[in-house]
Amino acid sequence: MRKEIKAIIAVVLAVWFFVMGFELGAYKEKKAQNPIDTVNPVTSTTQPTNPQPTLPSTTEPSTVPEPTDPQPTVPGTDDTTTDNSSTAPTAKDPLSLSKEEIVAEVNKYVNQVKKEQNMTASGTSVVNVSVTDCTAQGFVSTINNIITSITDKFGGEENYTFVNGQATDADGKAVTPWDVIPPTRKDFSAVDAGVASAKVEKVGENTMYTIVMVVEDTSMANPVPTYNSTVIGYLDLVSLDLPITLTKADMHYPGSTISVVVNPDGKVVEIINKLPMEGTGATKFLGKEVFASFGGALDEKWTFTY
């Protein structure tokens, strides 16, 4: 087999592993760390305290004032009169929330649905990846045809019916919403510094909260995007067990988007994630560096019913 053909195969393999890494690593960190368990809130019980003895009052008795002539009561001026005209404070209009308040609402609602006990959850995803440049430039079109045949096998639909917080996945394993809703097996945690913009809009009777994440870049030395990893996920190539040795794994995340749709009852009915990305991977083959640059995205939508 000619060296050029082997080089093309190496490129295709590299892209294949990018796609594999996207599917397996984007939502499941493969780093050697313990997952952050969700701690169920525990109602604290106030411990009884030893009662303090009542001390005799040392206050001198006050002098009773001389009676005075009673003053006539003026209607509406009695201090003890209850003002029935006042109303309880109303909730702030979501459309007037600040960026920081929207971020807090998105955190609240995503983590709320990740802790739901009884609901159905349906997720659909589409993976798109295409080579933009590679060592074998004359074969980009051919490689992309191969990639399309690969990515068509990814994505698809998954459905769960949670009863008392438990459901069964396609492999017959017990899972919770916390296990399957991104970011999987961890709490959703967006911070103000990681959000470039935020907005709220009405969708019929529902309210949609949307945040756009800041631009992030990673490398082999620093493969974890600080902000994307806590709200959606990321393409983790470095920690995958590959039969090839990568010499470069640079990723660019131009701005992921998370939208949360909430109904009038305060229940999350949709979560829409968009994770665009660009990357370059390279490996050594026959003493030469073989590289492939690509662009891609994951579009994912979750729908919930109660």
Uncertain spans: 1-5, 22-88
Compute the CA-based radius of gyration: 29 Å
- Tell me the span between the first and last alpha carbons: 58 Å
Question: What is the SS-derived class?
Answer: alpha+beta
SSE string, helix = H, strand = E?
A: HHEHEEEHEEEEEEE
Main beta sheet: strand number and arrangement? 9 strands, antiparallel
Work out the number of β strands: 11
Structure described in brief:
This protein has 306 residues and is α+β, with helices and mostly antiparallel strands. The chain has four helices and eleven strands, in the order ααβαβββαβββββββ.
Describe this structure in words.
- The protein has 306 residues and is of the alpha+beta class.
- 18% of the residues lie in helices and 32% in strands.
- The protein contains 4 helices and 11 strands; from the N terminus they run H-H-E-H-E-E-E-H-E-E-E-E-E-E-E.
- Strands 1, 2, 5, 6, 7, 8, 9, 10 and 11 form a 9-stranded antiparallel sheet that branches. Strands 3-4 form a two-stranded antiparallel sheet.
- A hairpin with a 5-residue loop joins strand 3 (167-168) and strand 4 (174-175).
- Helix 1 packs parallel to helix 3 (140-151).
- The longest helix has 23 residues, at 3-25.
- The relative contact order is 0.21.
- Residues 1-5 and 22-88 have low confidence and may be disordered.
